[in-house]
Amino acid sequence: MKTKRVRFAPSPTGWLHVGGARTALFNWLFAKKHEGKLILRIEDTDVERSSEEYTDSIKEDLKWLGIKWDEYYRQSDRLEIYERYARKLVHEGKAYHCYCTEEELEERRKKAIEEGRPPVYDGRCRNLTEEEKKRFEDEGREPTIRFKLPEQQPHVVVPDEIKGDIEFDSLTTGDFVILKSDGTPSYNFACVLDDHLMEISFVLRAEDHLTNTAKQMFLYEALGFEQPKFGHLSMLLGPDKSKLSKRSGATSVREFRKNGYLPEAMVNHLALLGWSSKDQQEIFSREELIEKFSLDNIVDSPQVFDREKLDWFNGQYIKEVELERFVELATPFLEGSESVDEASLKELGDERLRRALDLVRPSVSKLSELVDNEDMAIFFEGLELTDEAEEVLSWEDSDRVLRAIVTRFSGMEELTPEEVSESVKETKEEIDTGYKQVYKPLRAAVTGKISGPEIKEVISILGPEKTVNRINSVL
Ligand code: GLU
Ligand code: ZN
User: Fold this and answer.
1) C-beta atoms surrounding 439 within 10 Å
2) pLDDT at 250
Protein backbone atom coordinates (compact mmCIF):
# COMPACT_ATOMS: atom_id res chain seq x y z
CA MET A 1 0.00 0.00 0.00
CA LYS A 2 1.16 3.53 -0.73
CA THR A 3 2.42 5.56 2.19
CA LYS A 4 -0.11 8.08 3.38
CA ARG A 5 1.23 11.60 3.32
CA VAL A 6 -0.37 14.55 5.03
CA ARG A 7 0.79 18.07 5.70
CA PHE A 8 0.43 21.01 8.00
CA ALA A 9 0.88 24.24 6.05
CA PRO A 10 0.87 27.31 8.30
CA SER A 11 1.47 30.84 7.10
CA PRO A 12 4.03 32.43 9.44
CA THR A 13 2.06 35.62 9.90
CA GLY A 14 1.46 35.22 13.62
CA TRP A 15 1.95 32.90 16.57
CA LEU A 16 0.57 29.39 16.20
CA HIS A 17 -3.16 29.70 16.88
CA VAL A 18 -4.94 26.94 18.78
CA GLY A 19 -7.04 26.30 15.66
CA GLY A 20 -3.85 25.74 13.67
CA ALA A 21 -2.50 23.54 16.45
CA ARG A 22 -5.61 21.39 16.24
CA THR A 23 -5.19 21.01 12.47
CA ALA A 24 -1.55 20.08 12.99
CA LEU A 25 -2.48 17.60 15.71
CA PHE A 26 -5.14 15.87 13.61
CA ASN A 27 -2.73 15.56 10.70
CA TRP A 28 -0.07 14.19 13.00
CA LEU A 29 -2.49 11.67 14.53
CA PHE A 30 -3.56 10.61 11.06
CA ALA A 31 0.05 10.13 9.96
CA LYS A 32 0.94 8.19 13.09
CA LYS A 33 -2.15 6.05 12.88
CA HIS A 34 -1.39 5.03 9.31
CA GLU A 35 2.38 4.94 9.67
CA GLY A 36 2.46 7.74 7.15
CA LYS A 37 4.44 10.94 6.92
CA LEU A 38 3.71 14.43 8.16
CA ILE A 39 5.09 17.26 6.09
CA LEU A 40 5.54 20.70 7.61
CA ARG A 41 5.26 23.30 4.89
CA ILE A 42 5.76 26.93 5.75
CA GLU A 43 3.63 29.05 3.41
CA ASP A 44 5.64 32.21 3.52
CA THR A 45 5.23 33.62 0.03
CA ASP A 46 3.47 36.70 1.35
CA VAL A 47 6.71 38.48 2.06
CA GLU A 48 5.13 41.45 3.74
CA ARG A 49 3.16 39.51 6.32
CA SER A 50 5.49 36.56 6.90
CA SER A 51 8.45 36.56 9.23
CA GLU A 52 11.30 34.32 10.23
CA GLU A 53 10.43 34.92 13.85
CA TYR A 54 6.96 33.48 13.42
CA THR A 55 8.34 30.53 11.44
CA ASP A 56 10.66 29.70 14.31
CA SER A 57 7.96 30.14 16.90
CA ILE A 58 5.57 27.85 15.05
CA LYS A 59 8.23 25.14 14.89
CA GLU A 60 8.99 25.62 18.56
CA ASP A 61 5.34 25.39 19.57
CA LEU A 62 4.81 22.26 17.48
CA LYS A 63 7.81 20.67 19.15
CA TRP A 64 6.45 21.65 22.54
CA LEU A 65 3.20 19.91 21.66
CA GLY A 66 5.17 16.83 20.66
CA ILE A 67 4.13 17.09 17.02
CA LYS A 68 7.11 15.93 15.01
CA TRP A 69 7.27 16.28 11.27
CA ASP A 70 9.08 14.01 8.84
CA GLU A 71 9.82 16.51 6.09
CA TYR A 72 10.13 20.27 6.05
CA TYR A 73 9.73 22.81 3.25
CA ARG A 74 9.51 26.54 2.91
CA GLN A 75 7.63 27.93 -0.04
CA SER A 76 10.00 30.88 -0.29
CA ASP A 77 12.69 28.38 -1.31
CA ARG A 78 10.53 27.14 -4.15
CA LEU A 79 9.55 30.28 -6.04
CA GLU A 80 11.15 29.08 -9.25
CA ILE A 81 8.86 26.06 -9.33
CA TYR A 82 5.69 28.11 -9.08
CA GLU A 83 6.87 30.51 -11.73
CA ARG A 84 7.72 27.67 -14.08
CA TYR A 85 4.25 26.16 -13.78
CA ALA A 86 2.55 29.53 -14.19
CA ARG A 87 4.43 30.07 -17.45
CA LYS A 88 3.49 26.59 -18.55
CA LEU A 89 -0.19 27.36 -18.05
CA VAL A 90 0.18 30.60 -20.01
CA HIS A 91 1.90 28.67 -22.77
CA GLU A 92 -0.98 26.20 -22.88
CA GLY A 93 -3.54 29.01 -23.01
CA LYS A 94 -4.88 28.15 -19.55
CA ALA A 95 -3.65 31.34 -17.94
CA TYR A 96 -2.84 34.83 -19.14
CA HIS A 97 -1.06 38.04 -18.28
CA CYS A 98 -3.20 40.70 -16.68
CA TYR A 99 -1.93 44.28 -16.80
CA CYS A 100 -4.57 45.90 -14.66
CA THR A 101 -3.15 47.90 -11.78
CA GLU A 102 -4.25 47.59 -8.17
CA GLU A 103 -5.93 51.01 -8.39
CA GLU A 104 -7.87 50.10 -11.51
CA LEU A 105 -9.02 46.86 -9.99
CA GLU A 106 -10.04 48.57 -6.79
CA GLU A 107 -12.05 51.16 -8.67
CA ARG A 108 -13.87 48.48 -10.66
CA ARG A 109 -14.55 46.50 -7.51
CA LYS A 110 -16.16 49.54 -5.91
CA LYS A 111 -18.23 50.25 -8.97
CA ALA A 112 -19.44 46.66 -9.17
CA ILE A 113 -20.54 46.75 -5.55
CA GLU A 114 -22.39 50.04 -6.15
CA GLU A 115 -24.17 48.51 -9.09
CA GLY A 116 -24.98 45.34 -7.22
CA ARG A 117 -22.74 43.05 -9.28
CA PRO A 118 -20.32 40.55 -7.71
CA PRO A 119 -16.98 42.35 -7.36
CA VAL A 120 -14.95 39.87 -9.37
CA TYR A 121 -12.38 40.34 -12.08
CA ASP A 122 -14.12 40.93 -15.40
CA GLY A 123 -11.65 39.08 -17.58
CA ARG A 124 -10.71 42.09 -19.64
CA CYS A 125 -7.08 40.99 -20.18
CA ARG A 126 -8.07 37.51 -21.37
CA ASN A 127 -7.78 38.27 -25.03
CA LEU A 128 -5.32 41.11 -25.36
CA THR A 129 -3.64 41.44 -28.74
CA GLU A 130 0.14 41.51 -28.97
CA GLU A 131 0.02 45.27 -29.59
CA GLU A 132 -2.11 45.93 -26.56
CA LYS A 133 0.26 43.89 -24.44
CA LYS A 134 3.21 45.76 -25.84
CA ARG A 135 1.58 49.09 -25.12
CA PHE A 136 0.97 48.13 -21.48
CA GLU A 137 4.52 46.90 -21.12
CA ASP A 138 5.87 50.12 -22.56
CA GLU A 139 3.84 51.94 -19.94
CA GLY A 140 5.89 50.03 -17.41
CA ARG A 141 3.03 47.90 -16.11
CA GLU A 142 4.09 44.69 -14.40
CA PRO A 143 1.62 41.92 -15.21
CA THR A 144 0.20 39.32 -12.91
CA ILE A 145 -0.75 35.90 -14.24
CA ARG A 146 -4.40 34.96 -13.96
CA PHE A 147 -5.94 31.55 -14.22
CA LYS A 148 -8.58 31.22 -16.92
CA LEU A 149 -11.66 29.70 -15.34
CA PRO A 150 -13.80 27.57 -17.65
CA GLU A 151 -16.25 29.76 -19.58
CA GLN A 152 -19.24 27.77 -18.36
CA GLN A 153 -18.46 27.14 -14.73
CA PRO A 154 -19.87 23.71 -14.10
CA HIS A 155 -21.08 23.36 -10.59
CA VAL A 156 -18.23 22.20 -8.45
CA VAL A 157 -18.33 19.27 -6.10
CA VAL A 158 -15.76 18.98 -3.37
CA PRO A 159 -15.63 15.38 -2.21
CA ASP A 160 -15.05 15.59 1.51
CA GLU A 161 -14.05 12.56 3.59
CA ILE A 162 -15.65 14.08 6.66
CA LYS A 163 -18.64 16.01 5.43
CA GLY A 164 -19.51 14.05 2.32
CA ASP A 165 -19.88 15.79 -1.06
CA ILE A 166 -20.13 19.55 -0.86
CA GLU A 167 -21.61 21.28 -3.88
CA PHE A 168 -20.96 24.80 -5.03
CA ASP A 169 -23.48 26.10 -7.55
CA SER A 170 -21.33 28.87 -8.75
CA LEU A 171 -18.09 30.18 -7.48
CA THR A 172 -18.20 33.90 -7.03
CA THR A 173 -14.68 34.18 -8.17
CA GLY A 174 -13.47 35.56 -11.44
CA ASP A 175 -10.24 34.52 -13.11
CA PHE A 176 -7.94 34.56 -10.13
CA VAL A 177 -4.30 35.53 -9.86
CA ILE A 178 -1.87 32.62 -9.64
CA LEU A 179 1.34 34.59 -9.89
CA LYS A 180 1.66 38.11 -8.55
CA SER A 181 3.58 40.80 -10.38
CA ASP A 182 6.55 40.35 -8.03
CA GLY A 183 6.81 36.72 -9.12
CA THR A 184 5.41 35.20 -5.94
CA PRO A 185 2.54 32.73 -6.21
CA SER A 186 -0.92 33.11 -4.75
CA TYR A 187 -1.90 30.75 -1.95
CA ASN A 188 -4.17 28.50 -4.03
CA PHE A 189 -1.64 28.03 -6.78
CA ALA A 190 1.37 27.26 -4.59
CA CYS A 191 -0.79 25.02 -2.44
CA VAL A 192 -1.98 22.85 -5.34
CA LEU A 193 1.48 22.57 -6.84
CA ASP A 194 3.05 21.65 -3.54
CA ASP A 195 0.35 19.23 -2.51
CA HIS A 196 0.94 17.49 -5.83
CA LEU A 197 4.73 17.67 -5.90
CA MET A 198 4.98 16.61 -2.26
CA GLU A 199 2.69 13.69 -3.04
CA ILE A 200 0.17 14.60 -0.38
CA SER A 201 -2.51 11.93 -0.33
CA PHE A 202 -4.91 13.58 2.07
CA VAL A 203 -5.48 17.28 2.70
CA LEU A 204 -6.97 17.80 6.13
CA ARG A 205 -7.58 21.43 7.02
CA ALA A 206 -10.18 23.71 8.59
CA GLU A 207 -13.45 24.36 6.82
CA ASP A 208 -12.73 28.04 6.26
CA HIS A 209 -10.71 26.70 3.32
CA LEU A 210 -13.69 25.07 1.63
CA THR A 211 -14.09 27.68 -1.10
CA ASN A 212 -10.34 27.54 -1.66
CA THR A 213 -10.66 23.81 -2.15
CA ALA A 214 -13.37 24.44 -4.74
CA LYS A 215 -11.10 26.84 -6.61
CA GLN A 216 -8.25 24.40 -6.34
CA MET A 217 -10.30 21.73 -8.13
CA PHE A 218 -9.98 23.78 -11.34
CA LEU A 219 -6.23 24.01 -10.93
CA TYR A 220 -5.87 20.26 -10.48
CA GLU A 221 -7.86 19.81 -13.65
CA ALA A 222 -5.87 22.36 -15.67
CA LEU A 223 -2.52 21.06 -14.46
CA GLY A 224 -3.53 17.48 -15.15
CA PHE A 225 -2.83 16.44 -11.56
CA GLU A 226 -4.65 13.75 -9.71
CA GLN A 227 -6.55 15.16 -6.74
CA PRO A 228 -5.70 14.13 -3.22
CA LYS A 229 -8.49 13.29 -0.82
CA PHE A 230 -9.87 16.20 1.20
CA GLY A 231 -11.30 16.59 4.66
CA HIS A 232 -12.43 19.80 6.34
CA LEU A 233 -12.56 20.26 10.09
CA SER A 234 -15.31 22.31 11.66
CA MET A 235 -14.29 25.63 13.14
CA LEU A 236 -13.27 26.38 16.69
CA LEU A 237 -15.52 28.90 18.39
CA GLY A 238 -15.15 31.09 21.44
CA PRO A 239 -17.38 30.62 24.49
CA ASP A 240 -19.92 33.09 23.03
CA LYS A 241 -20.19 30.83 19.95
CA SER A 242 -18.61 33.41 17.70
CA LYS A 243 -15.25 33.01 16.01
CA LEU A 244 -12.52 32.28 18.53
CA SER A 245 -10.89 35.61 19.18
CA LYS A 246 -8.56 37.40 21.54
CA ARG A 247 -11.51 39.09 23.15
CA SER A 248 -12.26 36.03 25.23
CA GLY A 249 -8.64 35.36 26.21
CA ALA A 250 -5.56 33.61 24.91
CA THR A 251 -5.68 32.10 21.42
CA SER A 252 -2.07 31.26 20.72
CA VAL A 253 -0.27 28.14 21.85
CA ARG A 254 2.54 30.36 23.05
CA GLU A 255 0.32 32.19 25.52
CA PHE A 256 -0.98 28.94 26.97
CA ARG A 257 2.53 27.66 27.29
CA LYS A 258 3.61 30.81 29.12
CA ASN A 259 0.60 30.56 31.41
CA GLY A 260 1.64 27.15 32.61
CA TYR A 261 -0.34 24.62 30.65
CA LEU A 262 1.15 21.22 30.06
CA PRO A 263 1.49 20.08 26.46
CA GLU A 264 -0.25 16.83 27.42
CA ALA A 265 -3.31 18.78 28.56
CA MET A 266 -3.32 20.96 25.47
CA VAL A 267 -3.05 17.95 23.17
CA ASN A 268 -5.79 16.09 25.02
CA HIS A 269 -8.10 19.11 24.91
CA LEU A 270 -7.44 19.86 21.23
CA ALA A 271 -7.92 16.22 20.26
CA LEU A 272 -11.42 16.27 21.67
CA LEU A 273 -12.35 19.38 19.68
CA GLY A 274 -13.77 17.64 16.67
CA TRP A 275 -12.99 14.07 17.55
CA SER A 276 -14.52 11.69 20.01
CA SER A 277 -13.93 8.09 20.88
CA LYS A 278 -17.70 7.61 21.12
CA ASP A 279 -17.57 6.59 24.76
CA GLN A 280 -17.28 8.86 27.77
CA GLN A 281 -13.52 8.68 28.01
CA GLU A 282 -11.87 12.09 28.31
CA ILE A 283 -8.29 11.54 29.35
CA PHE A 284 -6.20 10.04 26.55
CA SER A 285 -2.50 9.44 26.38
CA ARG A 286 -0.82 10.19 23.09
CA GLU A 287 -0.58 6.49 22.33
CA GLU A 288 -4.27 6.02 22.97
CA LEU A 289 -5.13 8.95 20.74
CA ILE A 290 -3.10 7.48 17.92
CA GLU A 291 -4.61 4.07 18.41
CA LYS A 292 -8.19 5.30 18.54
CA PHE A 293 -8.01 8.11 16.01
CA SER A 294 -10.13 7.58 12.95
CA LEU A 295 -11.87 9.80 10.42
CA ASP A 296 -15.14 8.06 11.23
CA ASN A 297 -15.01 9.53 14.71
CA ILE A 298 -14.55 13.10 13.60
CA VAL A 299 -17.44 15.21 14.75
CA ASP A 300 -18.70 17.56 12.11
CA SER A 301 -20.06 20.44 14.14
CA PRO A 302 -18.50 23.66 15.41
CA GLN A 303 -16.45 23.13 18.54
CA VAL A 304 -16.27 25.54 21.43
CA PHE A 305 -12.77 26.11 22.70
CA ASP A 306 -13.59 26.02 26.37
CA ARG A 307 -10.81 27.41 28.52
CA GLU A 308 -12.39 26.09 31.70
CA LYS A 309 -12.30 22.62 30.28
CA LEU A 310 -8.67 23.12 29.39
CA ASP A 311 -7.99 24.17 32.99
CA TRP A 312 -9.66 20.99 34.14
CA PHE A 313 -7.50 18.86 31.84
CA ASN A 314 -4.44 20.73 33.00
CA GLY A 315 -5.28 20.13 36.64
CA GLN A 316 -5.73 16.44 35.93
CA TYR A 317 -2.36 16.21 34.23
CA ILE A 318 -0.66 18.22 36.96
CA LYS A 319 -1.90 15.66 39.48
CA GLU A 320 -0.97 12.68 37.34
CA VAL A 321 2.36 13.43 35.69
CA GLU A 322 5.48 11.91 37.14
CA LEU A 323 6.85 14.04 39.93
CA GLU A 324 10.23 14.44 38.21
CA ARG A 325 8.57 15.87 35.16
CA PHE A 326 6.33 18.11 37.19
CA VAL A 327 9.34 19.53 39.01
CA GLU A 328 11.11 20.08 35.71
CA LEU A 329 8.10 21.93 34.29
CA ALA A 330 7.40 23.94 37.43
CA THR A 331 10.90 25.10 38.28
CA PRO A 332 11.25 27.66 35.45
CA PHE A 333 8.03 29.29 36.59
CA LEU A 334 9.32 29.72 40.13
CA GLU A 335 12.76 30.79 38.97
CA GLY A 336 11.39 33.35 36.55
CA SER A 337 8.95 34.85 38.99
CA GLU A 338 9.26 38.17 40.75
CA SER A 339 7.21 37.13 43.73
CA VAL A 340 9.53 34.24 44.62
CA ASP A 341 12.94 35.51 45.55
CA GLU A 342 15.95 33.65 44.33
CA ALA A 343 17.58 33.30 47.72
CA SER A 344 14.48 31.66 49.14
CA LEU A 345 14.40 29.15 46.36
CA LYS A 346 18.05 28.33 46.79
CA GLU A 347 17.70 28.07 50.53
CA LEU A 348 14.87 25.59 50.11
CA GLY A 349 17.02 23.26 48.00
CA ASP A 350 16.06 20.68 45.40
CA GLU A 351 14.81 17.93 47.66
CA ARG A 352 12.52 20.15 49.73
CA LEU A 353 11.28 21.88 46.59
CA ARG A 354 10.43 18.51 45.11
CA ARG A 355 8.41 17.45 48.11
CA ALA A 356 6.75 20.84 48.45
CA LEU A 357 5.65 20.75 44.82
CA ASP A 358 4.23 17.29 45.30
CA LEU A 359 2.29 18.50 48.32
CA VAL A 360 0.73 21.53 46.66
CA ARG A 361 0.10 20.21 43.17
CA PRO A 362 -3.42 18.92 43.82
CA SER A 363 -4.54 22.50 44.37
CA VAL A 364 -2.99 23.93 41.21
CA SER A 365 -4.49 24.02 37.73
CA LYS A 366 -1.75 26.00 35.97
CA LEU A 367 1.97 26.12 36.60
CA SER A 368 1.83 29.90 36.65
CA GLU A 369 -0.38 29.71 39.74
CA LEU A 370 2.48 28.22 41.74
CA VAL A 371 4.09 31.60 41.91
CA ASP A 372 1.32 33.11 43.99
CA ASN A 373 0.09 29.91 45.52
CA GLU A 374 -0.41 30.38 49.24
CA ASP A 375 0.52 26.83 50.09
CA MET A 376 3.70 27.11 48.08
CA ALA A 377 4.58 30.38 49.78
CA ILE A 378 4.82 28.53 53.10
CA PHE A 379 8.09 27.05 51.95
CA PHE A 380 9.75 30.34 51.17
CA GLU A 381 11.34 32.78 53.56
CA GLY A 382 9.85 36.03 54.80
CA LEU A 383 6.46 34.79 56.01
CA GLU A 384 4.19 37.26 57.68
CA LEU A 385 1.65 36.33 60.32
CA THR A 386 -2.01 36.81 59.51
CA ASP A 387 -4.23 38.40 62.15
CA GLU A 388 -5.82 35.04 62.84
CA ALA A 389 -2.39 33.50 63.34
CA GLU A 390 -1.44 36.26 65.82
CA GLU A 391 -4.64 35.56 67.70
CA VAL A 392 -3.89 31.83 67.97
CA LEU A 393 -0.37 32.59 69.14
CA SER A 394 -1.72 34.72 71.94
CA TRP A 395 -3.65 31.83 73.48
CA GLU A 396 -2.77 31.02 77.04
CA ASP A 397 -0.89 27.75 76.32
CA SER A 398 0.71 28.72 73.03
CA ASP A 399 4.05 29.83 74.41
CA ARG A 400 4.54 26.77 76.51
CA VAL A 401 3.48 24.50 73.67
CA LEU A 402 5.89 26.05 71.22
CA ARG A 403 8.79 25.99 73.67
CA ALA A 404 8.14 22.32 74.37
CA ILE A 405 8.15 21.60 70.62
CA VAL A 406 11.39 23.49 70.14
CA THR A 407 12.99 21.39 72.85
CA ARG A 408 11.83 18.21 71.12
CA PHE A 409 12.95 19.18 67.64
CA SER A 410 16.25 20.83 68.47
CA GLY A 411 19.25 18.84 67.39
CA MET A 412 17.22 16.46 65.22
CA GLU A 413 18.33 15.87 61.64
CA GLU A 414 15.06 15.03 60.07
CA LEU A 415 11.44 14.34 60.88
CA THR A 416 8.98 12.06 59.19
CA PRO A 417 5.31 13.13 59.20
CA GLU A 418 4.64 10.32 61.69
CA GLU A 419 7.32 11.61 64.01
CA VAL A 420 5.73 15.05 63.88
CA SER A 421 2.37 13.56 64.88
CA GLU A 422 4.00 11.64 67.65
CA SER A 423 5.68 14.79 68.98
CA VAL A 424 2.42 16.67 68.91
CA LYS A 425 0.77 13.91 70.91
CA GLU A 426 3.55 13.83 73.47
CA THR A 427 3.54 17.59 73.82
CA LYS A 428 -0.19 17.58 74.39
CA GLU A 429 0.25 15.07 77.21
CA GLU A 430 3.23 16.83 78.68
CA ILE A 431 1.40 20.14 78.89
CA ASP A 432 -1.90 18.53 79.62
CA THR A 433 -3.88 20.44 77.07
CA GLY A 434 -5.99 19.74 73.97
CA TYR A 435 -4.85 18.76 70.45
CA LYS A 436 -6.14 22.02 69.10
CA GLN A 437 -4.00 23.92 71.60
CA VAL A 438 -0.94 22.26 70.14
CA TYR A 439 -1.68 21.98 66.45
CA LYS A 440 -3.00 25.47 65.95
CA PRO A 441 -0.13 27.51 67.42
CA LEU A 442 2.32 25.16 65.74
CA ARG A 443 0.74 25.79 62.36
CA ALA A 444 0.50 29.52 62.99
CA ALA A 445 4.16 29.76 63.97
CA VAL A 446 5.48 27.63 61.13
CA THR A 447 3.28 28.82 58.28
CA GLY A 448 2.01 32.20 59.48
CA LYS A 449 -1.54 31.07 58.79
CA ILE A 450 -4.26 29.06 60.45
CA SER A 451 -5.09 26.80 57.55
CA GLY A 452 -3.24 25.09 54.73
CA PRO A 453 -1.79 21.71 53.84
CA GLU A 454 -1.27 19.09 56.54
CA ILE A 455 1.11 20.51 59.06
CA LYS A 456 2.95 17.23 59.69
CA GLU A 457 3.81 17.14 55.97
CA VAL A 458 4.87 20.78 55.95
CA ILE A 459 7.14 20.31 58.97
CA SER A 460 8.59 17.11 57.60
CA ILE A 461 9.47 18.91 54.37
CA LEU A 462 10.92 21.96 56.09
CA GLY A 463 12.89 19.78 58.49
CA PRO A 464 13.54 20.31 62.22
CA GLU A 465 16.10 23.06 61.87
CA LYS A 466 13.99 25.39 59.76
CA THR A 467 10.95 24.60 61.84
CA VAL A 468 12.73 25.46 65.05
CA ASN A 469 14.06 28.69 63.53
CA ARG A 470 10.60 29.74 62.52
CA ILE A 471 9.10 28.97 65.89
CA ASN A 472 11.92 30.81 67.65
CA SER A 473 11.45 33.88 65.56
CA VAL A 474 7.79 33.95 66.60
CA LEU A 475 8.63 33.35 70.25
N1 GLU B 1 -1.29 28.61 4.66
C2 GLU B 1 -2.68 28.27 4.77
C3 GLU B 1 -3.18 28.69 6.12
O4 GLU B 1 -2.42 28.99 6.97
C5 GLU B 1 -2.74 26.78 4.57
C6 GLU B 1 -4.09 26.23 4.31
C7 GLU B 1 -3.99 24.80 3.86
O8 GLU B 1 -3.85 23.93 4.72
O9 GLU B 1 -4.01 24.57 2.67
O10 GLU B 1 -4.34 28.77 6.36
ZN1 ZN C 1 -6.41 42.73 -16.38
Assistant:
1) 18
2) 83
